[in-house]
# Entry
Amino acid sequence: MELETKVLHNGYEKDIQGTMAVPIYQTTAYAFKSAEHASDLFSLQDLGNIYTRLNNPTTAVLEARLAEIEGGVAALATASGQAAIFNAVANLVEAGDNIIISDKIYGGSVTLFKHTMKRFGIEARVFTLDMPSSIEALIDGKTKAIFYESLSNPQIAVADIKAISDIASKHKIISICDNTVATPILVNPIAHGCDIVVHSCSKYISGQGLALGGAIIERDGLSAFFKGNPRYTHFTQADESYQGLIYTDLPVPPFTLRARLALLRDIGATPSPFNSWSLIQSLETLSLRMKKHSDNALEVARFLAAHPKVFNLNYPGLADNVYNKLSRQYFKDDLSSGLISFEVDTKEIAWKILDSAKLFSIVVNIGDSKSIITHPSSTTHQQIPLDEQIKIGITPGLIRLSIGLENAQDLIKDLKVALER
# Structure
């Protein structure tokens, strides 16, 4: 089946009522058939629903569809994209370990890794996304993950996924790619060697800003990867918190299984069944929306490229963009998503443009059906010191656009007025 079919059908067999739409199983708990059945479920002798903090039938459909369209073997849904990122990394590390992160990632991820997880004894080391070879000098025996974004927010930089994956594989380290901006419609990092993909489903997958959600997807073969790998002995040794369970001994993908049993169980960043249902509906139109977002963004980018007040325009769909070659290598159908960023001379001019736009709302979300305009330096990346912002391409004059599904010419007219007011 092709991707457009998978998002409509995968993971759901019509229930006893024959419902075409996936039902919302809005329940916290489930009745067991007997005391023995309850015991078998908790000991994993039988697989089934235990408690919605761990699993839920509606959420299971979302997980199955996301795994399928990303080319993975299993997925774990979480309450938000940040929860997905945290759980993916927390599933690998312990105090004293380090992770290697790209210099071009979302501001919230920077804060999570460099401040919050630092308090847990986890060090974040930064590599240059445009130079994957810079990763190798940062690796040591305590390195547990390499984290990057396939299409960065807000620099709109395209990662060389295969180059990063090859380095991770060489050193037997798990690579984690945040594929939120590109979505599985445009890029499948697993197909290029990535181990784990994470998403903020609140963005393009939701598409209307209606539901928070996140997801972790793992590739096939991680049981074999973990066996004999001294970096990840907690996957191959008995888990005392789960009656001596050894994750790689089970015929189930181990990464998401451990994240479910050890992290969702203990931390509880679980999606509500209603949000899972909402995201399932949105997935059905994702392929159509990503094409429209991308087509609109290309038109807007061409307009901005010719405007005298705009410089350092970032959109990989433009032939002269520094990331165009990588975009053509990894992105499907010459589509480049709906994010654009560009610079103007000063923060004051940037703020004036934000305040002058009418169709563009000043919002820090992305991927909405309605167009959005943001000043990253004073919002999404405000926690990062200004000198550090500039090093990673977040200048005081940088503006980020999330291009929606409106008529592209209407968006261009709105920006023209805002730029020239």
In short: Residues 286-305 form the longest helix (20 residues). The mean pLDDT is 95.
